Amino acid sequence: MLHPTPTTVQLREMILKGELAPGERLAEAKLAEQLGVSRMPVRQALPVLAEEGLVVRAGQRGYAVRAHTREESVEALHLRGALEGYAARLLAEKGASVELLKQLRDLLAEGDALLADHTMTAEVQIGYASLNARFHDLLVTGAQNALLEGFVTRCNLVPFVAPRTVAFGHKDRRQYADILAYAHRQHHAIVEAIAARQPDRAEFMCREHIVTQEHSMGAQLL
């Protein structure tokens, strides 16, 4: 898996906000000038965005923004929430293993440390995206349901749906730290519900968690 950079974060949010339109060809030189960086960070970021499903190959060497609609992203996001809610319900009903609970709690502790200063930088956003992806992957794989995993994987192919694609549509960057802190508190609540064998609460918290992700994207996906 390729690793995102601050330039990746900037380009991702430009796509979310519509500043780079679906189908638009992406010229490295122009993007570098817009972002005030050299062409190399842009060149490194585009394959990462392709891996996330946000851009596609256009010609032999170029990329273009993947064509998609807001409605597709919202529908896939809600479906992912329902599927992960079902995974959490299964874990709470059957009882999660000691090892799985430890892995989840280790991620909670990692997130607590990452967000402790309540500051928002590209590095914090990248770190949280990685943590978020691992957390949600554990939820889904922990349920040990191959069909469920397949459905979630298909949802995650839709732009801005995968847990590792953390992007914000709000103009006020001061809201970003608040949103991530709230989302991480929801992670705590999900794990608590699973550990306490509360399937209804575990499922509800996962569905509510998706609303937070939708809100983080701002009006662009509402």
From TrEMBL:
Protein's UniProt keywords contain Cytoplasm: no
A Pfam family the protein falls into: FCD
Domain HTH gntR-type: residue ranges: 1-68
InterPro entries: GntR_C, TF_FadR/GntR_C, Tscrpt_reg_HTH_GntR, WH-like_DNA-bd_sf, WH_DNA-bd_sf
Highest rank taxon of the organism: Bacteria
Keywords: DNA-binding, Transcription, Transcription regulation
Gene3D superfamilies cross-referenced by the UniProt entry: GntR ligand-binding domain-like (1.20.120.530), Winged helix-like DNA-binding domain superfamily/Winged helix DNA-binding domain (1.10.10.10)
Gene Ontology molecular functions: DNA binding; DNA-binding transcription factor activity
Protein name: GntR family transcriptional regulator
